[in-house]
Write a structure and sequence with these properties.
- The structure is a single chain.
- Helix content is 47%, strand content 16%.
- The protein is of the alpha/beta class and 389 residues long.
- The strands form 2 sheets. It has an 8-stranded mixed sheet, with helices on both faces. Strands 11-10-9-12-13-14 form a 6-stranded parallel sheet, sandwiched between helices.
- Helix 13 links the parallel strand 13 (310-313) and strand 14 (326-329).
- The chain starts with a strand and ends with a helix.
Amino acid sequence: MNILMIHPHDVFSKEEPWTIRIINIAVEFKKNNHAVKIVYFPLEYKPRQRNSYMQDIEFIPLCRKVGIKPYLNNTRFLYKLCQWADIIHFQKCFYHAALPALINGFLSGKPIHYDWDDWEIKIFHYSARQPWLVGIFLSAMERFIPLLCDSVSVSSERLRQECIKYGVQPERIAMAPVGADLKLFNPNVSGIRVKERYNIEAPLIIYVGQLHGGQYAEQFVRAAKIILNQNPRVNFMVVGGGYRLEELKNLSEDLDLSQNIIFTGAVLHKETPLYLAAADIAVACFEDNDITRCKSPLKIAEYLASGKPIVASDVGEVKRMLGGAGILTVPGDAQDLASGIMKILDDEPLKKRLSCKARERAEEIYNWERTSQNLLNVYKLSFNDCLKK
């Protein structure tokens, strides 16, 4: 099967790490002997920028500038690629990728698949960093795209229910939660280099994630303050970058935690396992809202694969993902988060049990191989229907 995958962001930039999903799914498709091409939109597009190749996957850059000319050029270029494809797969509802995918899918008569991994309009309203007219357009796109596609994949049960409410047939919906690369993230990775780099000797509590809209790392900082009042030897680390990084640093200074919390900034995804390996406990804290109810958080899948005891807020898919491999806490409650962390810190047998259970969950469910197979199953349904027409 020839699979054309389209992502609205830059798959090669650590500033846009949400492209991890499409790359890992593509790699799994290649392992199953499918031909894959990924169209992406670089942050800094250069005219006549060349295609690149990684693991026999062709990466094709297009311009993301706002304007009629680049949009028409992209649409025309994608039409040629759609002639090659058996399935057109696009992720997220952003117009510069979604509309050309839909138009060319209809023109070429090829089945179209929409990968809905986040409720983007909710994230938009949370971050409020764009004009309100953009929000209206984004809301309309996200509302109607599932109905225009032959199949949809969702990362959570909440998004599945939204699709059904919109009128998508349940058999056309594939559950496709985030996964982890089980080789890259595993309990045998050494964290010695990270500990030496930051001179860490005491227990380390870690938070990993992009520090953009819809993230709640400030709870982690406030929980650190509570824990350090009782145990000043514990170290804390925030791994990730984004426009909220300075805000978090300022909060740590206000709470007099500058010497106790390490902010690494953005790191390459392939280096994340080294940081997790150095940690004793991994934290995923959230509020309870429409954004978090729709997520299957990537950080949790990678914590599981790394065999880390996890403390996480009980919201959305989190409880289902942990499956007993961690401590659940009240969403938005820094005190309860701190209590969960201290419970594991003070109980070595519990730490070991949670570590073993975590890796089991990743191997059984939360890995990219299983997610990609769910996608292939729903692709085949759409592809066979097109053949019958």
